[in-house]
């Protein structure tokens, strides 16, 4: 039906269900659709020319805004906790307190550095962060058809916004739920605002932001994109979902995690650095409108 779904990077446990959901979404039309996407390693690339690309946190960690001593500490945290994040041998219950520990320690270190708001644009520009190939088609299609895009990220909202602003795709139909920085009157980071969002509490984050989903209550069809099993709960605030299609990017520890991803996501994309599959599905849904 959609030729891109036959690509070797695409895995589906139940391709017939995928076809049926896409068909139902096409029949209902773009006015009934909303898109909910994770950011780091979902809208952004996991690697480029064989080198890992940074997350929102890493953009700051690797920047000139951070002292050498603090960089070492942040690197130690990454080396300790990232392997836990992607460890398929541990349960979510076991990982959750450790993820809270990671985010909390990292944010405390970033606050100690008194990062300046007016330098964020510069460090994003100087970073190796890259949106996935075809990102412009993705954002443009959604904008053209007035389909709301919620970017739901456990990264850093101020950095994320700067990435999409610099890419020229921070359109009015894009809304962001994330961890935002709180700056003092001199423009130096003094804290993070509100409840912490980490990879395993997106359900709570969604329920806290019920106003957003209330505004979109006529949009019962959801296209969800993520790279972590924690991303599956991003749509938990949506009002009476009719059809949901979950696309999961499996970037790392592919063999170990394939089975769990296939059970959880309708479409699993292995080592795919593009937005081609989401773009093809969106084109199909919006075609003829
Ligand atoms: N100190 C930290 C904490 C988390 N990360 C990574 O950020 C990712 C979360 O962002 P999403 O947009 O994917 O929700 C998460 O996968 C962590 O690996 C980090 O780099 N540094």
Automatic annotation (TrEMBL):
Catalytic activity of the protein: CMP + H2O = cytidine + phosphate; N(7)-methyl-GMP + H2O = N(7)-methylguanosine + phosphate; a ribonucleoside 5'-phosphate + H2O = a ribonucleoside + phosphate
Any GO molecular function: 5'-nucleotidase activity
Major subcellular site: cytoplasm
InterPro entries membership: HAD-like_sf (IPR036412), HAD_sf (IPR023214), Pyrimidine_nucleotidase_eu (IPR006434)
Keyword Cell membrane included in the entry's annotation: no
Gene3D superfamilies: HAD superfamily/HAD-like, Pyrimidine 5'-nucleotidase (UMPH-1), N-terminal domain
EC number, UniProt record: 3.1.3.5
Subcellular location: Cytoplasm
Keyword Hydrolase: yes
GO cellular component: cytoplasm
Keywords tagged on the record: Cytoplasm, Hydrolase, Magnesium, Metal-binding, Nucleotide metabolism, Nucleotide-binding
Function, as annotated: Specifically hydrolyzes 7-methylguanosine monophosphate (m(7)GMP) to 7-methylguanosine and inorganic phosphate. The specific activity for m(7)GMP may protect cells against undesired salvage of m(7)GMP and its incorporation into nucleic acids. Also has weak activity for CMP. UMP and purine nucleotides are poor substrates.
Membership in a protein family: Belongs to the pyrimidine 5'-nucleotidase family.
Self-association state and partner proteins as the record states: Monomer.
Name the record gives this protein: 5'-nucleotidase
Natural source organism: Albula goreensis
Native organism taxonomy: Eukaryota, Metazoa, Chordata, Craniata, Vertebrata
């Amino acid at each position: 039906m959609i030729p891109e779904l036959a690509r070797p990077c695409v895995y589906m446990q139940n391709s017939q269900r995928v076809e049926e959901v896409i068909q139902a979404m096409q029949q209902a039309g773009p006015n009934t659709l909303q898109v909910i996407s994770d950011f780091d390693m979902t809208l952004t690339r996991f690697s480029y020319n064989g080198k890992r690309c940074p997350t929102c946190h890493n953009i700051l960690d690797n920047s000139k805004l951070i002292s050498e001593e603090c960089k070492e500490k942040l690197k130690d945290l990454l080396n300790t906790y990232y392997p836990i994040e992607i460890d398929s041998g541990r349960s979510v219950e076991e990982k959750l307190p450790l993820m809270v520990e990671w985010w909390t320690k990292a944010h405390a270190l970033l606050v100690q550095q008194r990062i300046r708001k007016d330098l964020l644009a510069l460090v994003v520009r100087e970073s190796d962060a890259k949106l996935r190939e075809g990102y412009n088609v993705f954002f443009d299609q959604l904008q053209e058809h007035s389909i709301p895009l919620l970017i739901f990220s456990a990264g850093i909202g101020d950095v994320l916004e700067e990435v999409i602003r610099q890419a020229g795709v921070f359109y009015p139909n894009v809304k962001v739920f994330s961890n935002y920085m709180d700056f003092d009157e001199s423009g130096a980071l003094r804290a993070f605002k509100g409840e912490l969002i980490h990879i395993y509490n997106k359900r709570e984050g969604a329920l806290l932001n019920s106003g957003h989903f209330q505004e979109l209550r006529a949009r019962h069809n959801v296209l969800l994109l993520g790279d972590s099993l924690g991303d599956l709960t991003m749509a938990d605030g949506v009002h009476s979902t009719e059809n949901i299609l979950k696309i999961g990017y499996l970037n790392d520890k592919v063999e170990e995690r394939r089975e769990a991803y296939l059970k959880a996501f309708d479409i699993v994309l292995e080592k795919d650095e593009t937005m081609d599959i989401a773009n093809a599905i969106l084109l199909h849904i919006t075609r003829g409108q």
